[in-house]
Prior knowledge:
Elements: H1 6-19, H2 32-39, H3 43-55, E1 59-62, E2 66-69, H4 73-77, H5 85-89, H6 98-107, H7 128-138, H8 154-166, H9 182-194
Antiparallel strand pairs: 1-2
Amino acid sequence: MSKTPRYLQIVHSIRGKITQGEWAVGSKLPTQKELSEKYQVNRSTVITAIEILKAEGILEGKKGSGVYVVNNKWSLLTAASPPNWNDLSKWAAHPPSDSTVQVINESETKKEMIQLSKGELGCDLFPQSEIAKSMEKVSYQLHNVGYGDGLGDIDLRKEISKHLEKQGVYASPSNILIVSGALQALKLISFGVLL
Length: 195
């Protein structure tokens, strides 16, 4: 049993999540109720921890909206708030690729084009009748065909988390996103770096 008071344990835990990038600058913290359930303490203990982190300049409360991460240890070392990447990217040497992406998206709707970027077969090569027969056989076994939480298969994310931890990278399964292709991943990474 730790001799460290629970509110300080929560402070260290939240700091760790922020430092490791699980809760990035600009992200909203879970509600006090959710945090008290997560850490199995009463709300006043959570409030004490949040107030300490606010005093350190790591968190900021926005009236009626919640508590947000406003700094991490790296931005605190610079004694300045993190840069506004949206403003800075306006001066980039290369223009945004939004128009190019729009052209690609429009082209993807043309039936006469084979989508090599997606790895899809051409319409004339697609085995429609075989797939229909297979779906008929397994349709009674399908229970959930949605996207779940939208992050990808949880078991796969857990395995990736374990693998990354062996490499010295700590990322919880809730911070891992499974994407459908390299283009999507690269766009998400670039937006994450620039925003």
